[in-house]
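General statements about sequence and structure are easier to judge against a single worked case. Part of our work consisted of pairing the sequence of a single chain with a tokenised description of its backbone. The amino acid sequence and the backbone structure tokens for this protein are reproduced below.

***
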Amino acid sequence: MSKYLITGAAGFIGSHLCNAILSDGSNSVVAVDNLRSGNWGRVDKRATRVETDIAELRQNEWVGLLDGVEVVFHLAAEKYNSSKSTPEKVIQSNVLATEQLVRASAKAGVRRVVFTSSLYAYGSVGPDSMEENDVCEPDTLYGASKLMGEGILRAEARNTGLSWNVARLFFVYGPNQFADGGYKSVIISNFERMLNDKSPIIRGDGSQSLDYVYIDDCVQALRIMSDSRIDKQVTNISSGAPISINQLTEEMTSVANVKKHPIYEPPDWTSGTSRWGANENAMSKFGWEHKTPIDSGLKFVYEWMKKQRNND
């Protein structure tokens, strides 16, 4: 039996990861979350739940929680688009708390830390793909805080030999995805509209594109990065293929069997952008690949949303 600790365990990605690890009954998980945007209802009951804010934990408290833990998945973060967040909270949670956790992990003898960084660490809006050897120039506090988290891991590894891998996540989607602080992804918001017999909304001309990764593929990537003999790698977790909002909406209307034409509204800051990542590093070094086609992933999301609607 292996023991894991997951921060942000009641969140979208964290809950899927926690449940996958516990699915075969041979592992244990310490699940840490402050429930500001998480929900214990989507977490396997076999997890040991610790309801606390990571910004309030000190190194000695972390060491206690890490007793016997082999792998830490550090997913908890203050999101840049959350109405519940402040610049101070972003720094406290994404930088200072990360530093405390990483130092405690080294002290507790944790075998590996897997840290979820973000495409926002790059600061790029295209049109070229984002690659791991690009010079990062984040233009949001959230992106800068994620890049700082990566640096904290490097510094601690230099001092203690701590083993780590960083996953720069792109746009992860799937069932059980919830809005944080009122923000909803275009997939969730437009499927909600379709379920209410309304037309989907597209901002601008719809040519802006994003790189979507289905949740099961993301979870598989994180688990591979925790177990691989390869470490100290910063790796994009991306599909490697951008899809425009026009194309995405067309796929969604097909999945939902909706005949209504989209409503085009004034553009926002994403107009003309193409945010996507090269994933050759993930394939060549970790043997990971994005397997779920966008139409299949969207169908899973739509069926889940319909089920949720029927249960309400």
Q: What stands out?
A: The two ends are 38 Å apart (CA to CA). The mean pLDDT is 95. The longest helix spans residues 87-108.
